[in-house]
Amino acid sequence: KAGVTQTPRYLIKTRGQQVTLSCSPISGHRSVSWYQQTPGQGLQFLFEYFSETQRNKGNFPGRFSGRQFSNSRSEMNVSTLELGDSALYLCASSLDGTVVEKLFFGSGTQLSVL
Amino acid sequence: DQQVKQNSPSLSVQEGRISILNCDYTNSMFDYFLWYKKYPAEGPTFLISISSIKDKNEDGRFTVFLNKSAKHLSLHIVPSQPGDSAVYFCAAQAMTRGSARQLTFGSGTQLTVLP
């Protein structure tokens, strides 16, 4: 069974630009979550999607948005990039996210904002 | 406001000895706890978990202890091996609106096992 796939692996952008990251969950998984990892901050929850609906949202500004498609693939968008947005963005999938279960993570997209 | 705290950013242990990684939490609504291991350039992978109704869970060389009254959990690795060198994240789950569950992570502890 293929794992969680995130593309692209690396991105370099400049301040003010926007970026779109993609995540393909494990086949059959309907819940997709996004996390931001920065040095010393651990993983910060961005949002979670289930059946094309955002079900949970973390404490990030509105510049961070996402969506989920009917095939459960998800995209995350960051507009008006700031230097502080440089981070590893991780996507994780699970069956439905309603019971205690582990998440399966992708390898992440490393975003550098110059 | 960090609800899950890993106060030791790094830990070095000799191969064959015990590694003890600690985690504290503040939210009493957390009812499930997990440890993830992360190697560089890879996503975190699940290691071991424990429900709040238990105080110990073992899986091979890995044991997680939960002290609910102290809101503290720890991960013991015995014996430690060089391949265990990685960043370890503690995470906690609670029910949220709409029955969805959300993971709250600590900031991680870099474990280095010296040969």
Summarize this entry quickly:
Chain A is an all-beta fold.
Characterize the structure shown.
The complex is a heterodimer of chains A (114) and B (115). By secondary structure, chain A is mainly beta. Chain A is built from no helices and eleven strands. Chain A has strands at 5-7, 10-13, 19-24, 31-38, 42-50, 53-57, 64-68, 74-78, 87-94, 104-105, 109-113. In chain A, the strands form two sheets. In chain A, strands 2, 4, 5, 6, 9, 10 and 11 form a seven-stranded mixed sheet that branches. In chain A, strand 5 (42-50) and strand 6 form a beta hairpin. Chain A is globular, with a radius of gyration of 13 Å. Chain A starts with a strand and ends with a strand. The mean pLDDT of chain A is 92. Chain B has strands at 4-5, 10-14, 19-25, 32-38, 45-51, 56-59, 62-67, 72-77, 86-95, 101-105, 109-114. With 115 residues, chain B is mostly beta strands. Chain B starts with a strand and ends with a strand. In chain B, the strands form two sheets. In chain B, strands 2, 4, 5, 9, 10 and 11 form a six-stranded mixed sheet that branches. In chain B, strands 1-3-8-7-6 form a five-stranded antiparallel sheet, with no helix packed on it. The model of chain B has no long low-confidence stretch (mean pLDDT 92). Classes of the chains: A mainly beta (114), B mainly beta (115). Chain A binds chain B through residues 4, 31, 33, 35, 40-45, 48, 50, 55-56, 90, 92, 97-100, 102-108, and chain B through 4, 6, 9, 31-32, 34, 36, 41-46, 49, 51, 89, 91, 93, 96-108.
Oligomer: heterodimer
Q: Tell me about the biggest sheet of chain B? A: 6 strands, mixed
Helix/strand structural class of chain A: mainly beta
Task: Please tell me the overall pLDDT of chain A.
Answer: 92
**Count of individual beta strands of chain A:** 11
Biggest interface reads: A-B, 27 and 31 residues
Shape descriptor of chain B reads globular
Low-confidence stretches of chain B: none
- Overall geometry of chain A comes to globular
Order of helices and strands of chain B: EEEEEEEEEEE
Counting DSSP H or I runs of 4 or more residues, the number of helices of chain A is 0
State the secondary-structure class of chain B.
mainly beta
